[in-house]
Amino acid sequence: MCWDIVFLSAGVWLEWLHDLQLIVMNENALQTIRLINCHLTALILFQFLFFMKTDLYYVFTNVFRCPNLLEHTFLVGNPCD
After folding, report:
1. Strand, helix or coil at 5?
2. E strand or H helix at 59
3. What is the radius of gyration, based on Cα positions, of the chain?
4. What is the rounded distance in angstroms from the CA atom of residue 10 to the CA atom of residue 7?
C-alpha cells in the first residue's frame, strides 16, 4: 500500500507539472498516467473495506485492541423494527 501511495503521488505531481506547463507530455502519456492514477486510487480505497480483512483491518484491530472486530460490530436486534 505504501508503494501505491508513492506512485499515485508521483502521477499527481506529473499531471500538476504538465498543467503548469513546466513539462511537456504527449496526450498518450498523459492519458496513461491518468489511468494509472485511477487504478491506484481504487487500490487504496479497496484497503478500507474492513469486511474483507485487508491490511488496514488488522491495523485497526490492533490499534483499538479489538481482536475480533467483525463479530463485535453486528447489531443487536433488527434496526428496522
Report:
1. helix
2. helix 55-63
3. 19
4. 5
pLDDT tens digits, one per residue of 11-58: 999 999 999 999 999 999 999 999 999 999 998 888 777 667 777 788
Q: Cα(42)–Cα(4) distance, rounded to whole angstroms? A: 10
C-beta of residue 39 within 8 angstroms of C-beta of residue 7: no
Distance CA 43, CA 49 (A): 11
Q: Is the pTM of this model over 0.70?
A: no
Phi, psi of 67 (to 5 degrees): -65, -25
Tally of residues, the chain:
81
